[in-house]
């Protein structure tokens, strides 16, 4: 089932088109990532879904209903930990946030205990947020989005600036939210490890347009079939290097010049590449398709415009 549907969304700021007629949907229970270089329109899109920005054109539906009428089904976290009160403890923050939405009483107190326990915050439940580590604060901030039990959770850069241990904890938290709590998660991120490890569906924006929209598996497969590693019989010479650098195709030297890497759009082109190498007597030991990570896919799609 489509939980979020964005249809022909357009948002302009004066002459600048921040979001240019984009459409996508997010399926129930999935973790979907919106990626893109700085200024590509991620925040504008997410804020439009949360009804914090009014688009110029298009519409957004949550469970088939106009988002303005079903906004109570979203809990969102923007700009890191800004939803937290630093002089309050995690327990007090959660209680306060539930209170804003008119929820309280024993049921909510039980829910707070459950969340603190589930995300290993039990020991720190009475420490003011100001005295918690960055990772702990981030866990509390994400827990806050769960207290009201909405079906949709939206997170802006949930792992920004975290160390490896905190990254692992947030990653596990996201998996639990999706797999066990059965919530639909839409997040924006620049963190390719997070994308590769927890997200199923990916939307890549560039200059306000969607340039890719697929499952992570499909995107990796697509690019895996395009990237070749060519192991050479001899280490490449300076003259051969110079020859390669003047060619239209981009060759990446790896293993100190004992191998080359190349991205090609059509698998038949590998034969042309072999001919090109023969011209300068660059002899091939082995050609194999390369296992690539998602960062490479992303950089290819955005033509290296940065993360
Ligand atoms: N309130 C605003 N007024 C004018 N221009 C804006 C406004 N908000 C965003 N923009 C512009 O719209 C474009 C898209 O911005 P947006 O914040 O959606 O991008 P983003 O992908 O979230 O970027 P980042 O990764 O840097 O957070 C940018 O060029 C930005 O400068």
TrEMBL record:
Gene3D superfamilies associated with the record: P-loop containing nucleotide triphosphate hydrolases
Residue ranges constituting the ABC transporter domain according to the UniProt record: 4-232
Annotated signal peptide: none
GO terms of molecular function: ATP binding; ATP hydrolysis activity
Keyword Acetylation tagged: no
Keywords from the UniProt entry: ATP-binding, Nucleotide-binding, Transport
Protein name: ABC transporter ATP-binding protein
Source organism of this protein record: Vallitalea guaymasensis
Phylogenetic lineage: Bacteria, Bacillati, Bacillota, Clostridia, Lachnospirales
């Amino acid at each position: 089932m489509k939980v979020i549907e964005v249809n022909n969304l357009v948002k302009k700021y004066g002459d600048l088109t921040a979001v240019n007629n984009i459409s996508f949907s997010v399926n129930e229970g999935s973790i979907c990532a919106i990626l893109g270089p700085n200024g590509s329109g991620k925040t504008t899109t997410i804020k439009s879904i949360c009804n914090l920005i009014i688009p110029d054109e298009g519409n957004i539906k949550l469970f088939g209903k106009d988002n303005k009428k079903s906004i109570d089904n979203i809990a969102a976290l923007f700009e890191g930990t800004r939803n937290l009160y630093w002089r309050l403890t995690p327990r007090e923050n959660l209680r306060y946030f539930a209170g804003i939405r008119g929820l309280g009483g024993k049921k909510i107190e039980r829910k707070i205990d459950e969340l603190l326990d589930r995300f290993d915050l039990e020991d720190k439940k009475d420490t003011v947020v100001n005295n918690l580590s960055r990772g702990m604060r981030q866990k509390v901030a994400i827990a806050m989005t769960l207290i009201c039990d909405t079906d949709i959770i939206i997170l802006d850069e949930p792992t920004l600036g975290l160390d490896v241990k905190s990254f692992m904890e947030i990653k596990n938290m996201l998996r639990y939210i999706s797999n066990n709590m059965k919530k639909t998660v839409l997040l924006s991120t620049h963190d390719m490890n997070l994308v590769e490890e927890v997200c199923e569906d990916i939307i890549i924006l560039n200059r306000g347009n969607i340039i890719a929209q697929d499952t992570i598996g499909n995107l990796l497969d697509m690019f895996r079939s395009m990237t070749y590693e060519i192991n050479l019989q001899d280490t490449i010479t300076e003259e051969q290097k110079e020859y390669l650098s003047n060619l239209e195709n981009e060759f990446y030297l790896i293993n100190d010049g004992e191998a080359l890497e190349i991205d090609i759009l059509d698998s038949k082109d590998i034969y042309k590449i072999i001919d090109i190498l023969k011209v300068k007597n660059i002899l091939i030991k082995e050609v194999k398709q390369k296992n690539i990570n998602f960062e490479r896919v992303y950089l290819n799609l955005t033509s290296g415009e940065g993360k």
